[in-house]
Amino acid sequence: MNSFLGALAWLADPANWAGDNGIPIRLLEHLAITGIAVLIAAVIGISLGLFIGHTGRLSFLVVSTTGALRALPTLGLLVLFALWLGVGLAPVIIVLVILAIPPLLAGAYAGVESVDRGTIDAARAVGMTEWQILTRVEIPLGLPIIVGGLRSAVLQVVATATIAAYLPIGGLGRYIFDNLSLRRFEPVFAGAILVTVLALVLEGVFAGIQRLTVPKGVRILRGSPAPYGAGRAARIEPDASPTGSSSDESDPVPPPAHHMQQHPTQ
Q1: Which compartment or compartments is the protein found in (predicted)?
Q2: Measured at the alpha carbon of residue 98, what is the angle toward residues 73 and 54, in degrees to the nearest 5?
Q3: How far apart are CA 63 and CA 79, in angstroms?
Q4: Who contacts 153 (Cβ-Cβ below 8 Å, separation ≥6)?
Q5: Long-range contacts of 239-246, Cβ-Cβ distance < 8 Å, separation of 24 or more
Q6: Over the range 228-259, which residues count as b (16 or more CB within 10 Å of their CB) and which as e?
Q7: N or C: which end of the chain has fewer CB atoms below 10 A?
Q8: Strand pairing partners for 221?
């Protein structure tokens, strides 16, 4: 409790918000590392996911690649690439790219795969090319799931980017690694708080973006199983309104009319 209060006092100190080691500079470094890694991973993962989802080829890569890359130890990879490439930004970016590819690949594949096959067949029937089907039908309808993969990748990278300070490079992780060996726990807790707050802010931003990408006339059915164990993904279907109600009871048949005969009076 004392360390937590000390961390809050450290964050409130104006001296920690100025200079090259100030919080704004470290925050910008952290965001820059995250942005570069996610951008490179998006070019690789989303492009490959769209290709696999549209063509149906190499779909086994979604299972093998996402599972294998997620099982790799991040810190071990960082040390390995640092020994190979030397201390610098390159090993950090490579490790974070490897970390970000699985959710981006799975999200892009699941987004395209979730589009109803009847909609795609209708697009082909009106003469659309494969590129037009991908860009005008599959990507717009699957965009919420694709953004969901991007959202997951950003959160994983922004939380793991603290290891950049292990080499050391920069970012909010410097407050943790630089002060942990000195047993100065107030900056350590403060760095952890800053990373947590940053992750929560980005989570809220991308959650809002994901909601905005849902096209009109489309609903997301939560809880549908995602293909190849990609988690609980959303399945996209067009809205359908009932055209009428049916009844099991048929209209009653009127009984046959009985004619009354009048007897002549005598």
Answers
A1: Cell membrane; Membrane
A2: 135
A3: 27
A4: 38, 41, 42, 45, 99, 100, 101, 103, 104, 107
A5: none
A6: bebeebbbbbeeeeeeeeeeeeeeeeeeeeee
A7: C
A8: 235
Ramachandran angles phi, psi of 91, nearest 5°: -60, -40
Cβ–Cβ < 8 Å for 233, 253: no
How much is the pLDDT for 222?
44
Encoding tokens for residue 29? 């470094």
Q: Is there a cis peptide before residue 255, judged by omega within 30 degrees of 0? A: no
pLDDT at 1: 59
Which pLDDT does position 152 carry in this prediction? 94
Asked if the model's pLDDT at residue 48 lies above 50, the reply is: yes
Q: Give me the half-sphere count of Cα atoms (radius 13 Å) on the Cβ side of residue 227.
A: 22
- So where are the chain's domains? 31-171
Cβ-proximal residues to 177 (8 Å cutoff; 6+ apart), any chain: 162, 165, 166, 168
């810190």: which residue's tokens? Answer: 75
Q: 152 - beta bridge partners?
A: none
Phi, psi of 153, rounded to the nearest 5 degrees: -65, -45
| Size (the chain), residues | 266
CA distance 138 to 19: 48
Give dist(CA 34, CA 88) in Å, integer: 15
Please answer whether residues 133 and 50 qualify as being in contact, where contact means their C-beta atoms are separated by less than 8 angstroms.
no
Encoded tokens for 109: 């594949």
